[in-house]
UniProtKB/TrEMBL annotation:
InterPro entries (UniProt xref): Aldolase_TIM, GltB, Glu_synthdom, YerD
A single GO BP: glutamate biosynthetic process
Parts of the chain that traverse the membrane: 12-29
Domain Glutamate synthase: 154-475
Pfam families: Glu_synthase
Name recorded for this polypeptide: Glutamate synthase domain-containing protein 2
Species per Swiss-Prot/TrEMBL record: Marinobacter pelagius
Length: 548
């Protein structure tokens, strides 16, 4: 290849910096002015020289100095799009409209909108609720659902609660604010799998203690389950329910590790691990390996807790695994008091991109399969269902309850109430709002008194908005919401209610042995096993060959 002899224009910024330094330095010395101009040119020359001699970045070697502007603009691209380019209704992952309504309700300021909707009502996927010509009047928006009605210590839960977020993922002041707000509003605060910290206990708000595969707060040195530690924590009056975490929507089937350098004395105290040692959450539980064993473990937790409601949380993946759990319930007679369905759109502090975007069933489909299965096995009236997945408004709650849930949880919605600006820095420890960080220089700026009030306001004003929706629809309680109340546009000329759009199984339909007409049930329910999470035989055969 012939070598070019002309001066590359891409070196112009570097050449001009050198020329500027060579010219400005003697001129400055001669005139006796300050050295700021030659200093600027000297810095640019140094940057350009470094760009040329380093070997990591080819673009920098080819475009000395100029490439750094490219890296700068690339690094602030998300902020530029979020604050200057993104529309009010574009969800990335939450739209400005979604965040604004949370901010306004949390601050207890005007949350009304002028002129009309900005949503495209004739676009496929648009949803709404039908109203009634005979609206009702509801006395109070403190809507509640009883969980564990057959237990000695049932719990009356709000229909809108704080989803699982651990101390360690969130700062101490964030946990304090969330729990204080939960106490003020009489709704529950899920601890996350990081267990019960001093910051959960100090305010005194209701807790749902989540127990993951690391058994934090109830573990032996080797990571196995410790019944005595569990019994001690479960006996706390603040702990209203126990939630066994099987998987979460943002990263199902994925364990986690908190490096020892980040295990502070307070985190070690809450989780029952050694200071400075890696804190590991395995991908699966060590106390059980099949559905029947899992239910016996749940029954043991219920006994150790003194009769408090015990259930589990999961993101739906392979349908035969979920069906196996239900078959185990039927076989053993051991019924969890509740199931929390975590949608694939759920959030987390950090997860691989493929897990966040492409793994796990979204909440709508997951909730439908769980609700339908319990109805079709005559278990639905004994097992309550909670659901989580990008819930920030009263309509989000209403549509979720209409699909079969009894209550909803939210994590990021309550983070917005605390002041989260969706900076997408949760995994860096540099959260600008002091929420998702353990840096005290950042988290100490989060004022607990003000932020806890905002948490309370967000919950109260969202349920007030739900009350208004129910009244307009002619209903008296969220439990009356059904698939007939929510409508979705499927094309520019067609709309369908959820009742017509989705298939809902009849009570006992899976117990008769007859076909349901739904492929997922007809194909996988007969093959699911109560004693194993293993795939059906025909699935195993498919995995042995590409000849399908």
């Amino acid at each position: 290849m012939e070598k070019t002899t002309t001066f590359p224009l891409r070196y112009s910024a570097y050449a001009l910096s050198i020329a500027g330094f060579v010219i400005s330095l003697p001129v400055t010395l001669w005139l006796g002015y300050g050295y700021i101009v030659p200093a600027i040119f000297a810095v640019l020359t140094g940057v350009g020289t470094y760009d040329l001699i380093q070997t990591r970045h080819t673009v920098s070697r080819n475009y000395p100095i100029m490439a750094n502007f490219r890296y700068l603009f690339e690094s602030i691209g998300p902020e530029i799009r979020q604050y200057f380019i993104q529309s009010d209704t574009e969800e990335r992952p939450f739209s400005r409209e979604q965040r604004t309504i949370v901010y306004q309700r949390a601050k207890n300021v005007l949350d009304k909108r002028p002129f009309g909707s900005q949503l495209r009502m004739y676009e496929e996927g648009f949803e709404w609720m039908n109203h009634s010509l005979t609206p009702t009047r509801i006395a109070d928006s403190d809507f509640r659902i009883v969980i564990g009605k057959n237990r000695s210590k049932p719990y009356s839960a709000s229909v809108f609660n704080i989803s699982a977020m651990s101390f360690g993922s969130l700062s101490a002041n964030a946990i304090l604010s969330l729990n204080t707000g939960a106490k003020m509003g009489s709704f529950y605060h899920d601890t996350g799998e990081g267990s019960i910290s001093r910051y959960h206990l100090q305010p005194g708000g209701d807790l749902v203690w989540e127990i993951g595969s690391g058994y934090f707060g109830c573990r032996n040195k080797d990571g196995s389950f410790n019944a005595d530690m569990f019994k001690q924590n479960a006996a706390l009056d603040q702990v209203k329910m126990i939630e066994l975490k099987l998987s979460q929507g943002a990263k199902p089937g994925h364990g986690g590790i908190l490096p020892g350098a980040k295990v502070t004395p307070e985190i070690a105290e809450a989780r029952g691990v050694s200071l400075g040692e890696d804190c590991v959450s395995p991908a699966s539980h060590s106390e059980f390996s099949n559905p029947i064993e899992m239910l016996h473990f749940i029954d043991r937790l219920r006994e150790l807790s003194g009769g408090k409601p015990v259930g589990f949380k999961l993101a739906i993946g392979h349908p035969w695994e979920w069906f196996g759990i239900v078959k185990a319930i039927l076989e053993t007679g051991i019924k969890p008091d509740f199931i929390v369905v975590d949608g694939g759109e759920g959030g987390t502090g950090a997860a691989p991109l493929e897990f966040i975007n492409r793994l796990g069933m979204p909440m709508t489909e997951a909730l439908l399969i769980v609700h339908n299965t319990l109805v079709a096995t005559n278990l639905r009236e004994d097992i309550a269902i909670g659901a989580a997945g990008k819930i920030t408004s009263a309509f989000n709650i209403a549509r979720t309850l209409a699909l079969g849930a009894d209550w909803c949880n939210a994590a990021r919605g309550y983070m917005f109430a605390l002041g989260c600006i969706q900076a997408l820095n949760c995994h860096t420890g540099r959260c600008p709002s002091g929420i998702a960080t353990q840096d005290p220089r950042r988290s100490n700026k989060l004022d607990v008194r003000h932020k806890s009030q905002r948490v309370y306001n967000f919950h109260k004003n969202t349920l007030d908005a739900l009350q208004n929706l129910l009244e307009a629809a002619g209903l008296r309680h969220p439990s009356e919401l059904g698939p007939e109340h929510v409508i979705r546009r499927t094309s520019r000329t067609e709309v369908h209610s959820y009742l017509d759009l989705y298939r809902f199984l009849e009570p006992g339909a899976l117990l008769t042995g007859e076909k349901t007409g739904l492929t997922v049930f007809d194909k996988y329910w007969p093959e699911a096993r109560a004693d194993s999470f293993e795939p059906p035989h025909f699935i195993m055969k498919l995995r042995e060959t590409k000849l399908r």
